[in-house]
Amino acid sequence: MNALRAVKRLVDVALAGLILLVASPVLVLAAVLIRILEGGPVFYVSRRQVSVDRTIPVFKFRTMVRDATSRKYRLRERFMRDGYLDIPRTCEVYTPIGRILERLQIVELPQLVNVLFHGMSLIGNRPLPSENVRLLQNLDGWSNRFDSPAGITGIAQVVGRRELTPKQRLDLEGAYSKMYQEGNIAWCDMKIFYHTLRVIVFSKGIPIEKAYRLVGAEREVPALQPIVQTSTQP
Hints:
By secondary structure, the protein is mostly helical. It has helices spanning 2-38, 75-79, 96-103, 112-118, 130-136, 155-159, 166-182, 186-202, 208-214, and strands at 43-51, 54-61, 80-81, 84-85, 121-123, 151-153. The strands form three sheets. A two-stranded antiparallel ribbon has the order 1-2. A two-stranded antiparallel ribbon has the order 3-4.
C-alpha cells in the first residue's frame, strides 16, 4: 500500500512538472490578460486545510472583483452550504475574464505549484478554508475527507458541486479517501482525470450513481434533495 501511495506521489510530481512546462504559455497569457483587463493582483492566495491539522497557501488566478469578500456581496449568506462555498459563475462577483478562466479551469493551474512543493495531488478532495471546515464539522464523518491528499480536482468536481447536497459530497469524498487508504486508487484517479477533461470540454458532469460506483461506495445512493442555502449571519 505504501508503495502505491509513493507511485501516486511520483506520478503527481512528474505530471505537474510536465503540465507546468506545456501550459506555461497559457499561464503567462492568463496573467497578462488579468493584469491588463482587471489590474492587480493577478493571483488569489488563501490558506486552505489539506488535512485535519495542516494548512497551506493555495494559489489560483484571481477571477473575482477585488472586494468580492466584502459584506455587500453576502457570498457566505447566499452560497455557503454546511462548509462548502460553491459560487456559481453567473454571480456578479466574477469578472468577464474570470468567468472564462473558471469555465476552462485555467484558474486552478497555479496549484500545480502546490502539487510540487506542498504535497497536494492532481486528484483528491479539494482543500477548504479553516472557517469552512469548522462548519463542516456539523456533519458526521467530516474528517474522513482528509484521509487522502488534497487535490486540484476530485470526485465532487466531476459530478458538479452544485448538483450535490453537502452530505452527498462528503460521502463521496470520504469514499475516495477510503479507496486511497486501501491502496486501490490508480484506476479511480485515471477515471476522475478523464471525466474532469470531459467536464471542461462539454460542461456536463457524471451522474451521482456513477460517481458512487467510481469510488467503490457500497451503499444505496441517496436521493437528491433540494439544496437549502445556510446562512452564517449571527
